[in-house]
Amino acid sequence: MQTAVxxxxxxxxxxxxxxxxxxxxxxxxxxxDTPFTAGLACDLCGAPLPGQSDRAEHCDDCLxxxxxxxxxxxxxxxxxxxxxxxxxxxxxxxxxxxxTAAGWMARVTRPILREGMLAVPVPLHPRRxxxxxxxxxxxxxxxxxxxxxxxxxxxxxxxxxHTPSLDGRGREERxxxxxxxxxxxxxxxxxLAGRRVLLVDDxxxxxxxxxxxxAACHAAGATEICVSVLARVTxxx
Length: 237
Ligand SMILES: [Zn+2]
Ligand SMILES: [Zn+2]
Known about the structure:
Radius of gyration: 18 Å
Number of helices: 10
Strand content: 5-15%
Shape: globular
Distance between the termini: 42 Å
Number of strands: 8
Bound molecules: zinc ion
Order of helices and strands: HHHEEHHEHHEEHEHEHE
Low-confidence stretches: none
Mean pLDDT: 89
């Protein structure tokens, strides 16, 4: 069946559109130019770290800012093709990217998966959702749930009011602004109570949005939270 489908729709590279031989999603040259995280990474956010270690290590950001979640993973660094893929997914109506990207996320996230975990996407503001018609985090969460064989709930969280632009605001203010903006949807709160939650988003920058989403899950009774993002923004890129 897959062979027949491939004969009619040969797989294309997600970045350059060239033909590819595998289902991996990228051609050789684009794959080489894509900053996949490999080797030692921060146990809380997936940022690559130098050296090797037998125990969980944390990046400077996660040491400086307490994270309200237990562990986190990211298959990509937000640079080069990593950044390009996120932007195409977010603004380019490229739903094909979500399925492949979710597979990459599932692979790095599987080792931290907990029993009975529920995948929950970080919500978009309703106005942005209307304009964009889809929440890229929800597409990723759906793909991850499929790949990992876990449940997911696309509308467990919401942004309650318009989130002002965060540009030019200090770190504390960003956290405070976002904190109030994400809440559990009352009719879905039962699904979060007593549950382990895997929060899913496309990008982690400061972690403020994920922190607000995690706080909302905890407030609804979630017992433990892990996070998985497609790409982690790091200082060196
Ligand atoms: Zn390519
Ligand atoms: Zn970190």
